[in-house]
Design brief:
Number of domains: 1
Order of helices and strands: HHHHH
Bound molecules: iron/sulfur cluster
Strand content: under 5%
Number of strands: 0
Largest sheet: none
Structural class: mainly alpha
Radius of gyration: 12 Å
Helix content: 40-55%
């Protein structure tokens, strides 16, 4: 059976970091984190982490930046 909850929740800032408890946190959880595979595959944080293993803490699930733009910035900043 498909896991409803995103496997990244234990370390995701939406649940445990700077994005926890904001005005939009519950909406993000419903749309992405608790919406099965379809939900998390739309999440920019999930998409970036699937490619390079991590995602900067300030990237929102609905970030307008593309995965490639985020990864490019991470490389410039020496994060990866
Ligand atoms: S914000 Fe994205 S990566 Fe984080 S738990 Fe939710 S779906 Fe997973």
């Amino acid at each position: 059976m498909e896991a409803v909850l995103c496997p990244k929740t234990p370390k995701c800032p939406i649940f445990h970091g700077i994005l926890k408890g904001t005005e939009y946190t519950d909406t993000y959880k419903k749309l992405y984190c608790e919406a099965g595979e379809d939900g998390r595959l739309k999440c920019r944080r999930f998409q970036v982490a699937e490619k390079v293993g991590i995602c900067p803490p300030d990237i929102l699930p609905n970030s307008v930046k593309t995965v490639d733009e985020i990864i490019e910035k991470m490389k410039k900043e020496g994060i990866i």
